[in-house]
Specification:
eight-stranded parallel sheet, alpha+beta, 21% helix, 18 helices, TIM Barrel, 3 domains, 664 residues, six-stranded antiparallel sheet, Immunoglobulin-like, Jelly Rolls, 31 strands
Length: 664
């Protein structure tokens, strides 16, 4: 069935559980037949690059996102029914409530701002009926007065576009939604960046002066020749590059190239790198592997919705990717839905949990509510400076899952102060549960006392060894924990994901991650057979587990701390002379399916080989590996596979107890 046709008859559950949702942006169903035929041959995946130490930190240096961006967006509040008056009302409320002072600085206009593209000049035109300040004296049209006004308030304006020829709202099916999208000729309706990347970026981020840009991908997925928007409304046909069901049918390289072109245009327009670039390809096209090299915020899933299961779905898509987020590029499980549905003022337990989970994994904190009508109870959630500080901690470490189950999770985040951790214990279930928190979860000395400060209630408590909590359904507890470190003179690598760049993770054929909570799809409801695992990343680098969600173990010896990854991988670790020694116990993880090939572990410092293991196979004991790194800026860890690497696949390997320590 065509994308728009399936979306047009959304079932009651989608309509009642998310009453604000229009019936468009659907991507989970089958592609149109013509597009499917065009994509029937599997895309060829490029052979992995040669494992060679670079001698430098090669993580993204483009754009400006040293900490997770904070702000407000129009989409969850108004969808396409936005206006200058509404945006400015929420902006003023953000200032009056103190949220702007607390760090919410971006004011982002999402889909629905455009009148169309001027067919004579190719220039995008603002809908002046909705944004009257764009109508200039003498007949001109510009968003600059609006952007300047936002800047005069001490904030930063953001804008929305699509990487293809058309935007997500142009899939709309209801008469109201159709009436809001640009009308006219094919050229006037082609409002995305397709064919106009340099021109549009120079206009939006240069002449108009926006500081943040969100770039969607519906134009690459939903406008095939047989699609409803093309056949019935005359939009430009574009054979889809993205099939959300099958990474083999998605042209991953072409999608990446499209976003890379946008990134290059941004760098050209704003050479000072004073912009933020949101890559919104919904976790598809194997964006986990390349997004961190292209954008400052990387969407990890399809759209969030204001019900519990969908929040868990989008959270899970990001929470298992701690090693793929760092200062400069962050995992984005979508905008906050606090203030709506099951996260409104009548569901404060769920609202606080939603906010805490986004905070601990370093997700961008982008409010999606009409703040001019927000009750004080919700403003208090957005404005909790202790939770904000957890998200904005200067170390830039995303929280790592210390205990994982479908019912309950414990996430722990190393803060800039080595003696302090952020902790979230969350009851994901609908029943009361008991949670045990112990020093091992925190990587603290079990014999030393641990102090806990509840970041919501401000109450202080403590324990030695272990403690226990009773959590109500959907309740979470958020703490700042302080104690004596288990590793007294340094940090385990799994505690410092913000200092790690997984340059190559060994994956050669993307697979969907089955650990993500399977919720009812926002736009399809229950019309199809269910939302199957669809976001590639299964087998990627993991902190404190192996790449396939198994315990770290080498020949029967388990490791509570370490990095699990595939052979054929290279990780960069930013040291900058802070630590003097690297150490680990290395070997083939017991979770591997390849028992015949060998792996060699190598440690480089600023491009120079410092240490190397003997070739190791499955079933052999772990071997110690140490290197002096006192004067080293960038440490590189390479796991090099030797063998056929054919049907047996890449080895699963473990850097057990991998740590950086300082001389005593």
């Amino acid at each position: 069935m065509a994308v728009a046709r399936l979306a047009a008859s959304s079932p009651p559950i989608a309509q009642t559980a998310m009453t604000i949702a229009p019936t468009f942006r659907l991507r989970i169903c089958l592609l149109p037949l013509a597009a499917a035929l065009a994509l029937c041959a599997p895309c060829a995946f490029a052979a992995p690059a040669t494992l060679k130490a670079s001698g430098k930190w090669t993580a993204l240096a483009r754009g400006h996102a040293p900490l997770p961006p904070m702000g407000w967006s129009s989409w969850n509040a108004f969808l396409t029914d936005l206006s200058e008056k509404r945006v400015l009302a929420s902006t003023q409320a953000m200032i009056n409530s103190g949220l702007a002072k607390a760090g919410y600085v971006y004011v982002n206009i999402d889909d629905g701002w455009w009148a169309g593209r001027d067919p004579a000049t190719g220039r995008m035109v603002v809908n002046t009926a909705r944004f009257p300040s764009a109508a200039l004296a003498g007949g001109g049209n510009s968003f600059k007065p609006f952007a300047d006004h936002i800047k005069a308030l001490g904030l930063k304006p953001g804008i929305y576009t699509d990487v293809g020829y058309n935007s997500c709202s142009q899939q709309a099916n209801s008469p109201e939604d159709i009436a809001r999208v640009p009308q006219g000729t094919l050229a006037q309706k082609s409002i995305g960046l397709g064919g106009n990347v340099g021109r549009d970026i120079a206009l939006y981020m240069g002449e108009w002066g926006f500081d943040y840009i969100k770039v969607d991908a519906c134009g690459l997925a939903a406008f095939g020749p047989e699609s409803r928007p093309v056949k019935e409304r005359g939009y430009r046909a574009f054979t889809p590059l993205i099939d959300p069901v099958s990474p083999l049918r998605t042209d991953i390289a072409a999608v990446r190239n499209a976003y890379e072109e946008v990134g290059q245009a941004l760098a050209k327009t704003r050479p000072a790198n004073d912009f933020a670039f949101s890559v919104c390809v919904w976790g598809d096209a194997d964006v986990r592997s390349w997004g961190q090299h292209v954008g400052n915020m990387i969407r990890t899933s399809s759209d969030i919705a204001p019900w519990w299961g969908r929040m868990l779905h989008t959270f899970d898509s990001a929470s298992h990717r701690a090693l793929y987020a760092r200062p400069g590029s962050w995992n984005d499980p979508d905008m906050l839905f606090v203030g709506h549905g099951e996260f409104d003022e009548h569901h404060l337990t769920e609202a606080r949990t939603h906010f805490s989970l986004w905070a601990i994994i370093n997700a961008p904190l982008i409010i999606g509510q009409d703040l001019s009508r927000a009750p004080q109870a919700l403003l208090d959630i957005y404005g909790n400076t202790d939770i904000i500080a957890l998200n904005q901690d200067n170390a830039g470490n995303a929280g790592v899952i210390a205990y994982d189950s479908d019912d309950l999770q414990i996430l722990v985040k190393q803060l800039a102060d080595p003696s302090k951790k952020g902790v979230v214990i969350v009851n994901r279930s609908g029943s009361e549960l008991t949670a045990d928190l112990n020093a091992g979860h925190l990587k603290f000395d079990p014999a030393a006392p641990v102090a806990l400060r509840n970041l919501w209630t401000k109450q202080v408590s403590g324990f030695t060894g272990a403690t226990q909590f009773r959590l109500k359904a959907h309740e979470s507890l958020t703490f700042e924990a302080q104690g004596v470190r288990e590793l007294a003179d340094g940090l385990y690598l799994s505690e410092m994901p913000g200092r790690i760049h997984v340059a190559q993770d060994g994956i050669t054929a993307p697979q969907a991650d089955p650990t993500i909570y399977r919720s009812i799809n926002v736009w399809a409801g229950t019309q199809n057979g269910g939302e199957r695992p669809q976001y590639t990343g299964w087998g990627g680098a993991q902190a404190d587990t192996n790449p396939y969600d198994g315990a770290l173990q080498i020949n029967g010896k388990g490791y509570r701390s370490g990095i699990g990854i595939l052979a054929g991988s290279r990780m960069e670790v930013k040291n900058d002379g802070q630590f003097t020694q690297f150490s680990a116990e290395v070997g083939v993880d017991d979770g591997t399916r390849n028992s015949r090939d060998q792996v060699v572990f190598e440690v480089y410092g600023d491009g120079r080989l410092l240490a190397k293991s003997a070739p190791l196979r499955w079933g052999q004991d772990a071997r110690p590996l140490k290197a002096n790194v006192g004067a080293v800026k960038v440490i590189e860890l390479i796991a090099r596979q030797a063998g056929a690497q054919g049907g047996a696949g890449n080895l699963v390997v473990t850097w057990g107890k991998a740590a950086l320590t300082a001389a005593r």
